[in-house]
Amino acid sequence: MLLFQDQKKTKQLIALFGVGLIGSATAQAFTNSGEFKAHYLNWGWQETERGSQRQLSELVAKLAENSEISGITVLWCAGQTGFTDALTYSELTNFQIVLDWLAGQYRTSPELRYNFHMVSSAGGVFENQQGINSNSTPLPQRSYGALKLAQEESILAAAWLDERHIYRPTSVYGYPEPGQRVGLMPTMILNGVSNRVSTIFGQRDILRDYVLNEDVGNYIGKKVPSGECRHATNYYSLVMPGCWN
Q: Which of 101, 243, 229, 93 is nearest to 158 (CA)?
């Protein structure tokens, strides 16, 4: 999805990838603000790298024909359900395609500002760790966490970016659309209102923190267009209030 800001003198283009649980809530926050117009892009992950990049470039050029764009921001909310090596490799490949495309835009128009906002995973990069804080060291235990850390490192290595924003939410829940995976919290809610028993497998001493997808989306939706960046690289821990400093 491409979101074009046309209500201010400083106009930016946001390329949002992934409209699942977090991405759809974030897109809704943008459109609800009244500052952005949405243009849906039929992006196919199975297409060739060159074809995908050309498709993006053509649409960006079309939007910029009658408007002066001050910058391009990529917001990566994409993620494939599952933890297999094949799925994580596919996502990393497509992530790199998008980052390479943005680098190409920079080489063509270096006068613009280029920012990258990425939704990572606190549970993925800090799995099995306790007492997590800003000084904790990422130590992924599975391929999914290794994927998220690799994506973070790719952004950090892109020295040409003006800003890098990495969001590390804890367990995100929400009300899935038809066809989306139903997680623990929606399942328990549905079973509760239907007077059915929920069976949970796991260790009783494991603690999990849950945050609503709409809260995550609203936060990111305000942070991306704000322009209130203190540092070139920023990390955000998105958790339930009072659970994490």
A: 101
For 234-243, write each residue's pLDDT tens digit.
888 776 554 4
Q: Which two tokens stand for residue 38?
A: 């949405």
Q: What is d(CA 145, CA 147) in angstroms, rounded to the nearest whole number?
A: 5
CA geometry: angle 11, 13, 16, nearest 5 deg: 150
User: Taking Cα atoms as reference points, which of 65, 3, 71 lies closest to residue 36?
Assistant: 3
Predicted structure pTM score: 0.84
pLDDT value at residue 6? 66
22 Cβ contact partners less than 8 Å away, ≥ 6 residues apart: 77, 119, 169, 172, 213, 216, 217, 220
pLDDT of residue 196: 92
* Contacts within 8 Å (CB) and 24+ apart, 2-5: 2/38, 2/39, 2/41, 2/59, 2/60, 2/63, 3/27, 3/30, 3/31, 3/36, 3/37, 3/38, 3/39, 4/36, 4/37, 4/39, 4/63, 4/67, 5/35, 5/36, 5/225
Q: Are strands 163-169 and 233-238 parallel, antiparallel or unpaired?
A: parallel
Please say whether the structural domain 2-175+211-238 has been given the CATH code 3.30.428.10. Answer: no
Do 138 and 166 meet the contact criterion of CB atoms below 8 Å apart? no
Under DSSP, the state recorded for 231 is S
d(CA 162, CA 56): 21
Which residues have C-beta within 8 Å of that of residue 10, sequence separation ≥ 6?
A: 70, 227
Domain ranges of the chain: 2-175+211-238
Query: Looking at residue 237, what is its pLDDT?
Result: 79
